[in-house]
Amino acid sequence: MSGRYNGAYMKAHTILPGARRITRILDISPDASHRLKWLDWYRSHGSIARLTCRHFGISPDTFYRWKRRYQEKTLQTLESHSRRPHHVRQCLCPDETIALVIRLRREDMAASKYKIRHILLRDHALTLSASSIGRILTRAGLIAASQQIRSVKQKRRMRYLIPRLRAVPSMRYKTPGYLVQVDTKHLVILGQTYYQFVAIDCYSKVGFSYVYTSGASNHAADFLDRMVGYFPFRILAIQTDNGSEFLLHFHEACKRRGITHFFSHPKTPKDNPMVERLIQTTVYELWLFDETLVGEIDYLNARLAAWIGRYNTFRPHQSLHYLTPMEYFEKKRGEVYGM
Q1: Residue 146: CB atoms within 10 Å
Q2: Which one of 20, 30, 140, 328 has the fewest CB atoms closer than 10 angstroms to its CB?
């Protein structure tokens, strides 16, 4: 009920003290509420069942079933009942066989139901289908347990195999190459996904980028080799996020070159603000204005190389007092290296 009272709108829930708590107790599901609308519409339109069925697009059998089930002042009778069969097929395997299957699985959590079937036939002369073994393992909770163990061990392996060193913000302003931030950007061109690796020196703002067809760690290692050859100074440390592309081959390449590999905090892009900004700049100043963009890796890298050259040698940077990154590096070169 709603209406006007004393110049203000009101509802029934707010008139009677405690009515809101009572309505929460009598809350019903959306399906039951929809069925209640059937019956309300049925009674307010002459109690014509066929007209109600046509209005709501339901069959007469469905309407009459819920009409018979509904009881006055008991809205819960419109709730759906459990559809579980009254008589469920029981497992016919002997308890000894079930215990044997569970024991074999516990001894080797990686053993599949097909391998267990062959072990039963070979060592115990028992014939049991792989589907039956799968149901036994599922009821025993061993399928979910193996998935959880695999997930936990994989996370622990990735967490502890490579130490997560954290870089402090003051490292960004030491010397050229003292800290280089690296990240990836997904490029979707004509339905094809490419991976743009981006790097920037925090001190001089010299940038570098290259596009690959996948984000594998071996491509990240190749990007590291290209980046080291491109920058006019030695790289001492690199900071990346926790993506899989920066593990395995990439991390090994950093160790081989004597480069310290720092990681940002998980789900914290503000730890890599400079490379994130460079990624946005490539989008706004390069990809969005290339009207002839085609999905060819050589073309993308050629366009990107030309833009990176312009970014480093022609485009003025406000944070560098409107010098280009290479101009700023040459200006500070004598101060830093004594040249």
Answers
A1: 16
A2: 30
